[in-house]
Amino acid sequence: MRAVAVAEGGPGQQVARRTPVSELEFVGCEPVSVSAAEVEGPEWEGRRVEYWHAASETAWMVREPATVYHEGPGARLAKLVGQIGMARGSEAQCVGATDLRIRNDDGTQGDLMQADQAVYLDPARAELSRHGRVIVGEDPLPDVVLEVDHTTDVRRGKLVAYADWRLPEVWVEVPDRGSPGRRRGLPPGLRIYLLEGNRYRVSEVSRAFPGWRAAEIHRALNEGTMSEATEAALWRVGRALGDREGTVPEDDLLSRRLTGRGQARVLAHAAVSILRRRGIESSAERIAAVVRDASADAVVEAALTAGDEADFLARLA
To answer: Are residues 191 and 278 in the same domain?
Structure first.
């Protein structure tokens, strides 16, 4: 990976020198003339662009049409991040293919890139600028951006620009499934690029999601149905984040509801077992609706002493 020169900015800041666009390659893209007015206008929304160069008003547009091969991993990552948030006990935010912009020296908005998915671990940091764009140097940068290489190859262009713009962590995913348009020499897998100093290094483990390994992320992005191994990894990563931040699954409202329902089912089955051993027929479904807010001791005591199911339910009402 080529080094990217970095000059010192104001207090606590670094100002990146932008690599000339003539030194970047946008594999799998077509250069198209797009004016600054068009970029700022409503017709720009929904366009798939690798890079827009302000000085020449040139956009490199992805040749590949929207397909499940390319779009699927970004959507899948959003779901996985949501489940990690439940285990952590607080939400994260995925903002999709958001525009990343950098300002020109005169303050006008300059070059633009779009990631396939952008992730903020703290949703409060995802409050973006006007039109929902991330202005580099002004807005909080995503903790992770995902790039899906299928007919493209970000290593020779976009990844260099990401280092210029100081994106802290970039994941590059090549899906297991590929169409005939898949570029040769792109084996399936996921690479994690961590920014250190003025260049990226390849890592086997994420920095933003502690302990989540590249191979685990790739497997999770390509599964049709979640495996036990992926579930265990999501829980492990979520709890590592929670331990670091002092949160538990019950701090998440949905996790709290799901945990409560699970506990209610366990208590209901225990109560039904006790009642039936005493010769009292009962319904686990009816009991589960009542024991949800009861302690285990109260449920067991009622099951051991109630004269019938109605009596049991009345003791816990």
So the answer is: no
Spell out the residues 6+ positions from residue 157 whose beta carbon is closer than 8 angstroms to its own.
24, 25, 26, 27, 50, 51
- Burial of 257 from C-beta contacts in 10 A (0-12 / 13-18 / 19+): exposed
**Domains held by the chain: number:** 2
Q: How far apart are CA 111 and CA 200, in angstroms?
A: 21
Q: Which of 29-43, 51-65, 213-227 has the highest mean pLDDT?
A: 213-227
Residue with the two structure tokens 């007015």: 37
Strand-pair category, 6-8 with 29-33: unpaired
Domain that holds residue 17: 6-27+65-98+119-247
Looking at the fold, whether 153 and 297 belong to one and the same domain comes out as no
What tokens were used for 243?
Answer: 């331990």
CA dihedral 18, 23, 24, 30 (to 10 degrees): 120
Could you tell me which of 152, 154, 186, 173 has the C-alpha nearest to residue 217?
173
Alpha-carbon separation of residue 256 from 11, 31, 228, 232, 249 (angstroms): 43, 50, 21, 19, 7
Whole-structure pTM value: 0.77
Which one has a higher pLDDT value, 91 or 129? 91
